[in-house]
Efflux RND transporter periplasmic adaptor subunit (Bradyrhizobium niftali), 367 residues
Amino acid sequence: MRGRRTTPRQAIALTLMAVASASILAACDRQVETTKSSPRPVRTTTIEKRESLMPLTFTGRIEAEDEVSVAFRISGRLLANEARLGDRVEAGQLLAQLEPQNELSTLRQAKAALSAAQGQLTQARNHYERQETLLAQGWTTRASFEAATQARQTAQSQVEAAEAQLSSAHDLVSFTELRADAPGKITATGPSAGEVVQAGQMIARIARQDGRDAIFDVPAQMVRSAPADVQVTVSLTDDPKITARGRIRQIAAQADPVTRTFEVKVGLTEPPAAMRLGATVNGRVETSSGPVIDIPATALTRINQQPAVWVVDPSTNVVSARNVDILRFDQAQVIVSQGLDAGEIVVTAGVQALHPGQKVRVLGSEP
């Protein structure tokens, strides 16, 4: 079977196509060689170790620096309770009162006993004076005079005992009234009128007007690592612009049996009026975590399913990948715990287009 003959025109067209294809392939090879040989521009930063301040934040509440629970010294039925939550009280102001019938009866009995003792003392004194005169005149015996003296002393002792009982009865009557011992604000109230209360039972709790504390529950590790004289910045949770400063005033000697945290009291310096008792606040403390290495967040990439960075060899400008351990990070900065040393150069821009052994051209270093 005879093949088909190629005409001169077709031969010329095939030759031109072959020449064009060869030119295109040569141009592509030149472009690939140029791409492989030209360093990729990147931005870098030089690693430095810096002193880092690690902020610690806790949530707590505002309480009075000096808060006391007031109670009756005796038991009885509550006649009235004038204490109202949130009320301001002055020193000596009446807060509550017990029914005083029994105490008033005791007072009347003590007064009557004193009157009787005073009458007996008067009689004993008169008898003593008569015996003293008769003894001087020789009309009585020494024994009668000594008996009169003894009776006078006994009557005097009975009067003194009756006076003590009367004073105790007055105290019992006064104990039926509960008064504030200092100005402040009532933060809690107890039983209502008509209830029977026991001695020492809380009737009201008064926050005295001599300071404010911010109370926080802090883990034991933070208590041990906190500096001796640390300053705490306290701000309202619902309005962080309202702040106050303070220092740790007291740390609980024993941990809470449930949470295993320690109660820390921070004494506030001139707290604003908006920091009312019971308000929820945040406390912020900055503690030194020692020298750390920080890099821009743009330098971080992921290789072998682990965080990594590109390190530049300053002698050859060739990059190599290195896995690192991250301590903490945010949107702008990454704190590296292991994997980098001071003085090394790390790529911060262009990390996604690099491969191991690639040569780069440094455009500029970031501070």
